[in-house]
Amino acid sequence: MTPFTYARADAPDAAVRLGEGGARFLGGGTNLIDLMRERVEAPGALVDVSGLSQAIEETAEGSLLIGAGVRNTALAEHGLVRTRYPLVTRAIVAGASAQIRNMATVGGNLMQRTRCTYFYDVEGSRCNKRSPGEGCDARGGFNRIHAILGASEACVATHPSDLCVALAALDAVVHVEGAGGARTIPFGNFHLLPGETPDRETALEPGELIKAVELPPLPIAAHSRYRKVRDRASYAFALISVAAALRVEGGKVAEVRLALGGVAHRPWRAHAAEAALVGAPASEASFLAAADAELVGAVPLRDNAFKIELARRTIAAVLSDLSEAGA
Amino acid sequence: MSIIKGAKARAQGLAMGALAKAVALAPDSWIPGSTPDPLIRRRSGHTGKPMSRLDGPLKVAGQARFAAEIALPGMAYAALAHATIAKGRITALDTAAAEAAPGVVLVMTYRNAPRLQRPPVFMSSAKAAWGDDLPILQDDQVRWNGQPIAVVVAETQEQADHAASLVTAIYAEEPAATAFAEAKSKGSSPGSFMMQPLHNESGDAEKALAAAHFRVDATYTTPRHNHNAIELHGLTCAWEADGTLRIHDASQMVAHEAWTLARIFGLAEEKVVVTSPFVGGGFGGKGLWQHQVLAAAAAKLAERPVRLLLPREGVYRLVGGRAQTEQRVALGADANGRLTALIHTGFTAKPPASAMPEPFIVPTRSAYAAGAMLLDVQVVEVDGLSNTFMRAPGEAVGTFAVECAIDELAEVAGIDPIELRIRNEPDKDPVSGLPFSGRNLVEAYRLGAERFGWDRRSPAPRSRREGEWWVGMGCATGTYPYYRMPGGAARITLTAEGATVDIAAHEMGMGTATAATQVAADRLGLDPAAITFNYGDSTLPGTVMAGGSQQTASIGASVVAAHRALVAELVKLAGNDSPIAGAKPDELSCRDAGLCRADNEAAYESYASILARANRPSITVEATPSMPFEMMHWSMHSHSAMFAEVRVNAVTGEIRVSRFLGSFDCGRILNSKTAASQFRGGIIMGLGLALMEETQFDARTGRIMNPSLAEYHLPVHLDVPDIEVIWTDIPDPHTPMGARGIGEIGITGTGAAVANAVYNAVGKRVRDLPITLDKLL
């Protein structure tokens, strides 16, 4: 690990001040510290913000405001989260291990970085995300876990978070604060596609800090699922994951939310599928057709063509499950 | 392999073959094990009981001190920098930044490393223990991607790690053969293992196959695997004032290691002392690799004790694993399912310098009676880190191919897979013609099938569905040979209070020290609490490798020999006034801390009494057992009947093993508690082999891309179902204690049982490991 300085800030404004000049904010450390050990990241300064708000509060408008310092376990176990947004709970408990969930924070979860093994291999592999412009060894190498949607010539990495897939389906809002003041970022704009600049992963400006994540009121979310498909029963990243909420009226889809994990550089909100579904019969044929509408632009790499069929089947299975369970 | 090396190996093979023939034909009475060990008859002692591990409390309390936890005064910490190309030459190596970094004591490269001898390759001498003979940090050549190019020694581990990251190298790359298919297209050479050619042939198997009533013929492939013991490879070492090199290591071969390191450093054997009282898992990977030599060399240069603990990635870069295989299995059978042809041939990859082709045909030699047989391993040369032994080398992947093929034949012939195996049980060893020392596979199948509920399996795939899940059952035979290597020796010191047994053996978590204590207690007629078993120290008697599942046999035979010497000594000391006066050792038994006549237990005198009368506080004997000729006189193998129930998700192809049962025939079980754990551990490793383990070796660069437990998948708790293990407990009449080793057999047969169950669930044969969900979509 490269030497660094460490400071702690329990209030956003203090954290932002301490973070000026290129410091990295440290949450539970379950990803950033690993990346520092692997020398993928070598920040000169860390500002520990795990002491930021750990509150989960209901706002006057009926949103849930989740402090950036809330631990994943606490969020998953929260009563209102379990009843109003069960897919959030399911997404969290599908990830990592109990020990890691006890440490990981909500703010940190949004900042997780890809598991691409070429990204991790600082000494021996090329990666445009790590070293812009040097090339990508993943494209012609082991890319079973890589992207099928929204990738670029420069980068085929996927975003690894489970929680973020659920947040994408829910139209969450990210509250941030920087030197220029506070602002909010719609979740769909928070994570970026790689394009020519895969090193830029979020809409955060340099020095900006995540303060909270807001879940807007969404009655449909009470009837939701998160399903994760992976290479072993636990403790593996998603090959494909599906976050969905569904309301059926008179045999037809009245309202739907659908997001995918493991397919792209960001949690993938399936707008095309949603558009195809609204008003369609709540049948397996509609669900498969909607999946096809979303995946029509999918581009497989050497090792991951199976993800297209896997995503298609998993989307249909989750929607069928929601439909049969009484949407 | 070069022509000269090939010729030498063939000559050695011929010599071994001639010896084997002579031993095979010798009368039983000349052979060790001809008279059953008296302990086999004794069923009321400590042997076989579920005694808890003697080192359990220490480990649970965190007080067992492992190699890289030993603190020495003035100790410095080491970290390695590794090459990032597969083959070539270092043209520039910049260590200035590392040398200038905080806390750095020194940076050692090929330019300033002490001059060292090349390592002696195992089997080249009795105690040689290296997998290749490549020089260690002696020149500018890069021979594999990950090879150490610098050792940084610093005041703290963090400083060493950081400084190692500052070492930079420029290379002149040379073309490397890193792709299996490409290397294969350039030709192969015959493999040999343990000085025997990996080739057996009887009759014309291809002709018999062509004429067979039923036929299957398929190719099975298995990937590279890496060692992932919980305890990382590490050591703490120091050069002492008298020039002794003392190494606290994680080792499964302390005596081999001391001798081999002495050769490399040009020292007398006794000037290297290796201790290893606790090892957190070995599996064939805790032998000698470059890190031990590099740490010792750095300690010499620094004139300070040095600790080197490899990080997980370092283990992948430095410690070889299981080699890749591509196996053809073709079976021909008559209308009754009797095998008329058995062909098991194929290819394995290894670097040119590696002495270890993965011997996947070994388990097939004694598996089935077949009219004609052709077994062959061809070696393809691929540049990379030398591969090595990994739990049941040969058997783990060889049984996958053959036992899947048997399942395929059972379907083609319309015969239950267990019945098909029973019909092809050999009555003597099919290759050597030797009688079996003990073979109760049919009994293991009978017990296992009943317990597992095999009769509930439908022979037709896709017969059972529960919700989204297809459910299937499969079985397979596992097998592992009885080995006892030369080199055993034991010292027993007897006092009025008890006995101390000293052997340079190893405890890697499997319960060796506990089982050895139980057996020694019964043999000496003492309470286990009165036995002290010392091991894990190269200065103790014996050269006993914890490998090949042979350690228990080697310890057992060594203690038998030392016990015999002890009894003879006691009779001498007892003199004419003792109730045992004049008895020969064979006429005596041990009981209640003393000796009695075997045919008259009342004629007894206690050890305390004998010693007191002779005015001796203690007596010490040391002895060496006879050469292990029993292995050439009988065909000695353990077997298992493995049963798996799996669930395959109809939507996603996800596979979950829902039940597993192993029914073992391994001779007498010495400790039912630690044995059950050994069996289960092997099976869990087999589940990993079946479903997830795979080293991602990037053929473009020869670089391992998943050197971490996050990306190299092993079964986690949720992947492991209830595993039931049962055993026949039928003693082998020709082995010490009637036991055969149990360390490796659990992984064998497991992969095929899972694959066959997957087929039974969904009707798809996956012949390419691991069976991941994408192969079932």
UniProtKB/TrEMBL annotation, chain A:
Entry-linked SUPFAM superfamilies: CO dehydrogenase flavoprotein C-terminal domain-like, FAD-binding/transporter-associated domain-like
Protein name per UniProt: Molybdopterin dehydrogenase
Origin species: Sphingomonas spermidinifaciens
Domain of life: Bacteria
Gene3D superfamilies cross-referenced by the UniProt entry: 3.30.465.10, CO dehydrogenase flavoprotein, C-terminal domain, Uridine Diphospho-n-acetylenolpyruvylglucosamine Reductase, domain 2
Domain named FAD-binding PCMH-type: residues: 1-220
InterPro entries: CO_DH_flav_C, CO_DH_flav_C_dom_sf, Diverse_Substr_Oxidored, FAD-bd_PCMH, FAD-bd_PCMH-like_sf, FAD-bd_PCMH_sub1, FAD-bd_PCMH_sub2, Mopterin_DH_FAD-bd
UniProt KW keywords: FAD, Flavoprotein
Annotated GO MF terms: FAD binding; oxidoreductase activity
TrEMBL record, chain B:
GO function terms (MF aspect): iron ion binding; oxidoreductase activity
Pfam families named in the record: Ald_Xan_dh_C (PF01315), MoCoBD_1 (PF02738), MoCoBD_2 (PF20256)
Domain Aldehyde oxidase/xanthine dehydrogenase a/b hammerhead: 61-175
SMART domains to which the protein is assigned, alphabetical: Ald_Xan_dh_C
Alphabetical keyword list: Molybdenum, Oxidoreductase
Ranges in coiled-coil conformation: none
Region annotated Disordered, chain positions: 35-54
PANTHER family associated with the record: ALDEHYDE OXIDASE 1-RELATED, XANTHINE DEHYDROGENASE
Name of the protein: Dehydrogenase
Annotated source species: Sphingomonas spermidinifaciens
